[in-house]
Design a protein that fits this description.
It is elongated and about 55 Å long. Strands 1-4-5-7-8-9-10-11 form an eight-stranded antiparallel β-barrel. It contains two helices and eleven strands; from the N terminus they run αββββββαβββββ. By secondary structure, the chain is mainly beta.
Length: about 180
């Protein structure tokens, strides 16, 4: 991989997630027929990029109690022991183990996700959506990341089978992160 290709993807430097202009979301099937979407309101993260993208590092933390599905009762249940157990596990953490450039805008991120005290490998697909300097002279990069995981892999097994064979809550959870990150001076 050439340095030029790496610079086209994300220029070298330390990039910090701007939570005011970013979103960390998920979606999961309910009853096998509807999709419930949610976000986390409090998160932080950095991306360290050098001359070689393969040596880059992403570290992200998310406050589990900040889960928001626009339904207070459901959010309280998600914070409880059946799901995130936010009191005992206040944070989930993702740390990349490999970042691989696919083309000028696309990359994959392999890493370890720790949720409820369980660490499992997760792979995300990423797209660089652009670069811009904001009116306050901050250099920004836009990145969209998607992936999926199995709740069961993290010990989140709350469920109920329905007469149709569908589950109350799907085991498969889709992840979607829309990130605006600012390069540190």
């Amino acid at each position: 991989m050439s340095a030029l290709a790496t610079e086209t993807l994300i220029p070298a430097g330390t990039w910090t997630i701007d939570p005011a202009h970013s979103q960390v979301g998920f979606s999961v099937k309910h009853l096998g027929i509807a999709t419930v979407r949610g976000t986390f309101d409090r998160f932080a993260g950095t991306l360290e990029v050098g001359d070689d993208l393969a040596a880059a590092k992403i570290v992200t933390t998310i406050e589990t109690a900040s889960v928001n599905t626009n339904d207070a009762q459901r959010d309280a249940h998600l914070r409880a022991a059946d799901f995130f157990d936010a009191e005992a596990n206040p944070e989930l953490r993702f740390e990349s183990t490999e970042i691989r450039q696919i083309d000028a805008e696309t990359f994959s991120v392999a890493g370890d996700l720790t949720l409820r005290g369980v660490t499992q490998p997760v792979e995300l697909k990423g797209v660089t959506t652009g670069f811009e300097t904001d009116p306050w002279a901050n250099e920004r990069v836009g990145v969209e990341l998607t992936g999926e995981l199995s709740r069961g892999d993290f010990g989140i097994t709350f469920n109920q089978l329905l007469g149709s064979g569908n589950a109350l809550v799907s085991d498969k959870v889709k992840l979607s992160l829309d990130i605006s990150a600012i390069r540190k001076a």
